[in-house]
Design goal:
This is Adenylate kinase. Helices cover about 45% and strands about 15% of the residues. It is α/β, with parallel strands linked by helices. Bound molecules: BIS(adenosine)-5'-pentaphosphate and zinc ion.
């Protein structure tokens, strides 16, 4: 099962992608996580990506496409995968379609997690991410067991640089301009499924399971 998560920044793509990955035993591939790991490790890719990410802008397509197309050729992707944060522009979607077509494959489901802009800024200001493993929490909706400490690795939890309110509004406008057109793209491809992302995390997941099948 090859799945794409669509939705605004902070809609809950990552939260749901992790749950999908666990239930259906397919890898979760997040381009945002890949870039953040590269930034943390000080790689040349990380250095390039950081300048865009900190401003709320998209990293150029050429830095992303090859990375993902290579990754999905790994052995662990044979049964499928859930892509989170990719594709994010029409050229990225076209490159993915082309790479899949070349091996007789296609995206089965593009799940759009719908959350209005008003809710997004509130959500992002409450998000906290682990500096060590990248796990994501929310002060109100998905609180860690110990305040400020990651449940999984005991790392410290911080507000992501790009979750500051001024950067969030830039990311939202970039989303509407460059990523929202993918909804039509995947609708035309017959793969689009939409879920209400404003309800409880577990209820959003139930709606997704109904789409994917138990
Ligand atoms: P990326 O990491 O992909 O960021 P994003 O798309 O902006 O998505 P987020 O991770 O912010 O949010 P999410 O939808 O996963 O929400 P989450 O589950 O955490 O990308 C970061 C940057 O990298 C980009 O800006 C760009 O520069 C670059 N980049 C990455 N991919 C790229 C690409 N393909 N091309 C070019 N550039 C690229 O949830 C958010 C919060 O809400 C959490 O605190 C969570 O606990 C909480 N929450 C989740 N669901 C619910 C719910 N139902 N109710 C209440 N709270 C909830
Ligand atoms: Zn951690």
């Amino acid at each position: 099962m090859r799945i794409i998560m669509l939705g605004a920044p902070g809609a809950g793509k990552g939260t749901q992608a992790i749950k999908i990955s666990e239930k259906y035993k397919i890898p979760h591939i997040s381009t945002g996580d890949i870039f953040r790991a590269n930034i943390k490790n000080g790689t040349p890719l990380g250095e390039k990506a950081k300048t865009y990410m900190d401003q709320g802008l998209l990293v150029p397509d050429e830095l992303v496409v090859e990375l993902v197309v290579d990754r999905i050729q790994n052995e662990d992707c044979e049964k499928g995968y859930v892509l989170d944060g990719f594709p994010r522009t029409i050229p990225q979607a076209e490159a993915l379609t082309k790479a899949l077509e070349a091996v007789g494959q296609k995206i089965d489901f593009a799940i759009d997690v719908e959350v209005p802009d008003e809710n997004i800024v509130r959500r992002m200001s409450g998000r906290r991410a682990c500096v060590d493993c990248g796990a994501t929490y929310h002060l109100v909706y998905a609180a860690p067991k110990k305040e400020g400490i990651c449940d999984q690795c005991e790392g410290s939890l911080i507000l992501r640089e790009d979750d500051k309110p001024e950067t969030v509004s830039k990311r939202l406008s970039v989303y509407h301009e460059q990523t929202q057109p993918l909804i039509d793209y995947y609708s035309n491809a017959g793969a689009l499924k939409s879920v209400d992302g404003t309800i409880d995390i577990e209820d959003v997941f139930q709606a997704i399971v109904e789409i994917l099948g138990a």
